[in-house]
Amino acid sequence: MILIDGKKISQEIRQEIARETELMIQQGARAPHLAAVLVGHDGGSETYVANKVRACAEVGFQSTLIRFEEDVTEKLLLETVEQLNNDPEIDGFIVQLPLPRHINEQKIIEAISPEKDVDGFHPVNVGKLLIGLPCFVSATPSGIMELLRRYHIETSGKHCVVIGRSNIVGKPVSMLMAQKTNPGDATVTLCHSRTRNLKELVSQADIIIAALGSPGFVTGDMVKEGAVVIDVGTTRVPSSETKSGFRLRGDVLFEEVAPKCSYITPVPGGVGPMTIVSLLRNTQLAAKRR
Amino acid sequence: MILIDGKKISQEIRQEIARETELMIQQGARAPHLAAVLVGHDGGSETYVANKVRACAEVGFQSTLIRFEEDVTEKLLLETVEQLNNDPEIDGFIVQLPLPRHINEQKIIEAISPEKDVDGFHPVNVGKLLIGLPCFVSATPSGIMELLRRYHIETSGKHCVVIGRSNIVGKPVSMLMAQKTNPGDATVTLCHSRTRNLKELVSQADIIIAALGSPGFVTGDMVKEGAVVIDVGTTRVPSSETKSGFRLRGDVLFEEVAPKCSYITPVPGGVGPMTIVSLLRNTQLAAKRR
Predict the structure, then answer these.
(1) CATH architecture of B28-113
(2) B179 tagged catalytic
(3) pLDDT value of residue B244
(4) What is the pTM of this model?
């Protein structure tokens, strides 16, 4: 069993991005510049955005954090998006989700220029992903594909079972895995809460991508000997063993499943660390396109 | 075994559309107006466009056919698209594909305003389809879903195996079948040329959607007793029995498969007649939105 070390891979990619940024600057271009819009003071969102800003600094990117209070109007947020769309100094930007209830999230997402939508949530980028055109792929699906690529995991002709049909993981990663690319070219089964014979289906899989958000859902008896297991779950559960009082648990019951796998991602330290790296790569791509 | 009569259903829907159009006109609105852009003189394209124009007349729509010779420039075509985008008298329009090689098809598709893209090929519409937002769904996936709906075929929790990963059928219909809708809510497996154990997978399916363009590919031994079979294939093969010298063959070996099915679409007369109806419905929807 080989542990897929997302932390290590993400550090390697950060170094690659940093080197490329240096090169850009040496050649007279300015550094890639990411802006993040943060509304309110949700603890999770604060942490995510702080990590993104810190990651930018580490790879030599500029970053700008734009903060609004919880009661910001949709109108002002849309104006901000429009300013960022038109600002030649900004290569890409994100609006940290979730937004307060009085704001139409989809309206904000669709207001972002697809060329600066480094989160890859705009319908244009999602549509291009399905069609197989170059686009900004959102962080988690992109991170999963990159892990498969870096570990040279054979996917062509394999049966990949995706558990969970979310718009940000299950559906896009299904399309990426089915596409005529490497990694990709897999037969893909998309399972979800309505799936009847889930255990039977999952146990046929050469590659399992678990993205349903249910701690320990995938048990040893569901996994075929030699399978590749990608665990996207990151549910916070209370824990007396950590200072913070909680720990992250994946969708896979690691102790049972790991011994049967050829490859498996741990939680934490698997897919998680790859997501910020995907955002950095998209931002670099946006900067190169200018 | 119940034969899914696409011809009959499409006529019923045409009547519904015609009635709704009458109502619109009675209420003082103008009739929905579809424009079709046809480049060159390809026999297939001529026929398709002529059928679309005729269908418009039958349901009381206005239609406009814009013709260009094979040597039209991309620039002129883009200008035409722009005019149609801005023309308040046009509710929706299509550019008949394929286009001559010197024209970038994707560039033309992306120039069409998503609000008038009644073919549903613009990335915005494809992206919204994946996300599950209201959008123009392209003709064939939309026709398939409508047949399932009209025949009250249970899809929730069923295992649907889609054969063929094209951008216009396999990929979008996979996403629609997996979505939390009715019809939909199915477990979906997307198979293609690289799939290894295709026969084994297809024989597990409660619903088979064959869209690979290989006549008679799905044979009796691949189909579970009681399965629902949707045959999207329409390959022209030579025939001494027809005046035209050819006949249409589906991807399913009907004689072998039909006796095992609960429901099956014939070719011709199954999915085929539904495609123009889907275009008419999209055009009516576009007209209502104005």
Answers:
(1) 3-Layer(aba) Sandwich (3.40)
(2) no
(3) 86
(4) 0.97
Which stretches of chain B sit within 8 Å of chain A by CB? 106, 122-133, 156-159, 165, 167, 171-172, 174-175, 178-180, 185-192, 194-197, 201
B52, B116, B158, B171: the active-site residue? B52
Which tens digit of pLDDT belongs to each residue from B243-287?
A: 889 999 999 999 999 999 999 999 999 999 999 999 999 999 999
Q: Identify the CA nearest to B109 among candidates B70, B136, B140, B131.
A: B136
CA angle B43, B45, B47 (to 5 degrees): 70
What is the CATH architecture of A30-113?
A: 3-Layer(aba) Sandwich (3.40)
Mutate to test the interface with B, among A131, A156, A185 (most CBs of B within 10 A): A131
pLDDT digits (tens, 9 = 90+) for B97-134: 999 999 999 999 999 999 999 999 999 999 999 999 99
Q: What is the mean pLDDT of residues A1-29?
A: 97
- According to CATH, what is the number of the domain A139-273? 3.40.50.720
Q: Which residues make up the CATH 3.40.50.10860 domain(s) of chain B?
A: 28-113
Is B52 among the catalytic positions? Answer: yes
pLDDT in the model for residue A290: 81
Mutation site for B-interface testing, chosen from A160, A189, A191, A206 by largest number of B Cβ within 10 Å: A189
Burial of B172 (0-12, 13-18, 19+ CB in 10 A): buried
Tokens of A142: 């992109």
Q: Which residue of B has its CA nearest to A172?
A: B130
> CB A194 to CB B157 under 8 A?
yes
The shortest C-alpha distance from A22 to chain B (Å) reads 34
- Interface contact A187-B172, CB threshold 8 A: no
**Which one, of B221, B183, B176, lies nearest residue B202 by Cα?**
B221
Residues of chain A with CATH 3.40.50.720: 139-273
Q: CATH 3.40.50.10860 residue ranges in chain A?
A: 30-113
Shortest distance, CA B240 to any CA of chain A (angstroms)? 38
Q: Which residues of A touch B (CB under 8 A)?
A: 106, 122-133, 156-159, 165, 167, 171-172, 174-175, 178-180, 185-192, 194-197, 201
Instruction: For residue B156, list chain A residues with Cβ-Cβ distance below 8 A.
Output: 194
Report pLDDT digits (tens) over A122-165. 999 999 999 999 999 999 999 999 999 999 999 999 999 999 99
